[in-house]
Write a structure and sequence with these properties.
By secondary structure, the protein is an all-beta fold. 0% of the residues lie in helices and 55% in strands. The protein has strands spanning 3-7, 10-13, 18-25, 34-39, 46-51, 57-59, 67-72, 77-82, 91-99, 102-105, 109-114. The protein is globular, with a radius of gyration of 13 Å.
């Protein structure tokens, strides 16, 4: 019933930008905190940013000032605007929500930053 579908990943040069989207369904999106995580091979899945129902935002230090998380409560969609990308940002990006005692994840979208 819970569904999270990411899109917007791709290949970009260092210094460029991408905008990721996560369309959600099956949750009360408006009252949930929603999160972006990322993962590369051989590493754990790490929190990148999250945004609360009150639109309070948090970011991991490595993306602070470069990434902006936002939400559209009409479209039930989470966004991650990524600017000034560098190769260290290369990863599969996942959206996440904790819903009724369980973790739910999208299938991920690949972001690759060249140079």
């Amino acid at each position: 019933q819970v569904r999270l579908v990411e899109s917007g990943g791709g290949l970009v040069q260092a210094g460029g930008s991408l905008r990721l989207s996560c369309k959600t369904s099956g949750i009360n999106f408006r009252i949930n905190t929603v999160d972006w995580y990322r993962q590369t091979p051989g590493k754990q899945r790490d929190l990148v940013a999250n945004i609360s129902s009150a639109h309070t935002t948090n970011y991991v230090d490595s993306v602070k000032g470069r990434f902006t998380i936002s939400r559209d409560n009409v479209r039930n969609t989470l966004y991650l605007q990524m600017d000034s990308l560098n190769p260290e940002d290369t990863a599969v990006y996942y959206c996440h929500v904790f819903h009724r005692g369980r973790d739910f994840w999208g299938q991920g979208t690949q972001v690759t930053v060249s140079s």
